[in-house]
Design goal:
about 325 residues; mainly beta; Immunoglobulin-like; five-stranded mixed sheet; four-stranded mixed sheet; 2 helices; about 15% helix
Length: about 325
């Protein structure tokens, strides 16, 4: 979305060019130019998001009271938002509202874990965390809204809690399920990351048949990442289940499940219909026809690009691209020499 300041800058620049070269740009043309600029911004934003991946963060809080000062302690696990793999060597900066001169900087280790702390008298002030890592978009968290926080688990009912995440809820036969499991313990009001118990990762079908099994010991930060490969010939069902069991002395002391579906799916297909398309034309004429573009389920393609290529018997090629708006495109190809 173009801001007011950006629109003023665009209009000012167009006015300057208009006056310098006497282009006589009217209001309609000015509006078209602003719309083209908006589309350009959207395109650049999409390219940026493709180039830089996104992060997410898991947080838990520990209040540490010492004789001299009380500090707020937080353990952060920074992960790739898509595959839930830890992001190594990220940097975390904390900014305190009303104390602009105060900034706390911390570094994550190779496991994506960062332990941060700051004096408790800042607790009532709004503060933000800015997380940066090479190849990722900057992630900003807000203390009041918990914006972008995947989990902020500070109230636990049981002695141990399992947090189970997979990268998606729907998969195809032959896909790989990326799983992240976080084992959190509690003593009184204090949370800690438990890494002493083995964790079993299982995949069941609708008939409770065991399809995959793996036993993993959490790292010292209390979490595991693992992959479950789905066989290519597996039946398509809605009710597959990932099950996580915490094992202590060969006994299952805690379990967590998540339902997933496995079925074949594909990207929405686009259906193209042509209108007034001629089978022949004169060499020096413009070749014009219309396109209707719809998804297979009936909705129009609101915006898109259409590529048209014509090749004559001599091997000469005419290739042009046209904009699709609200499902329609007007194609005009100049066939003049």
């Amino acid at each position: 979305m173009t801001t007011k300041d950006e629109e003023l800058q665009i209009c000012s620049y167009i006015d300057e060019v208009n006056e310098r070269y006497n282009l006589n740009i009217d209001d309609s043309q000015l509006s078209d130019m602003k719309e083209q600029w908006r589309r350009f911004q959207v395109h650049v934003t999409k390219l940026y998001n493709l180039k830089f991946r996104q992060m997410a963060v898991f947080i838990h809080n520990v209040a540490d009271i010492s004789e001299s000062i009380q500090k707020i302690k937080r353990t952060l696990i920074i992960v790739d938002r898509v595959n839930l793999k830890p992001v190594s060597n990220a940097k975390v900066e904390i900014f305190i509202e009303n104390f602009p001169e105060e900034k706390f900087t911390f570094s994550c280790n190779s496991q994506g874990v960062c332990e941060v702390d700051f004096p408790v008298f800042y607790e009532e002030n709004r503060f933000s965390l800015e997380i940066t890592a090479e190849g990722f978009q900057t992630l900003t968290l807000d203390s009041k809204t918990n914006t972008n926080v995947l989990i902020d688990q500070t109230q636990l009912e049981n002695r141990y809690n399992l947090l189970l995440f997979s990268d998606r809820d729907q998969y195809k036969p032959g896909d790989t399920i990326h799983v992240l499991v976080w084992l959190v313990g509690q003593q009184g009001d204090t949370l800690y990351l438990n890494h002493y118990n083995n964790i079993q990762v299982k995949l069941f079908n609708n008939n409770q048949d065991l399809l995959s099994f793996n036993t993993i010991k959490p790292n010292k930060y209390g979490y595991i990442t693992t992959d479950i490969h789905i066989e290519s010939e597996i039946p398509e069902e809605e009710n597959y289940k990932i099950q996580i069991d915490v094992v202590q002395e060969d006994n299952i002391v805690l379990s967590k499940t998540k339902q997933i579906s496995i079925k074949r799916y594909k990207r929405p297909e686009i259906q193209i219909k042509t209108q007034n398309m001629k089978n022949s034309w004169f060499k020096n004429d413009d070749y014009e026809f219309f396109i209707d573009a719809e998804y297979f389920y009936g909705d129009k393609v609101k915006t898109g690009r259409l590529s048209v290529k014509i090749k004559d018997i001599l091997g000469n090629i005419i290739k042009e691209k046209f904009q699709i708006n609200e499902g329609n495109a007007n194609v005009i190809l100049s066939l003049r020499n």
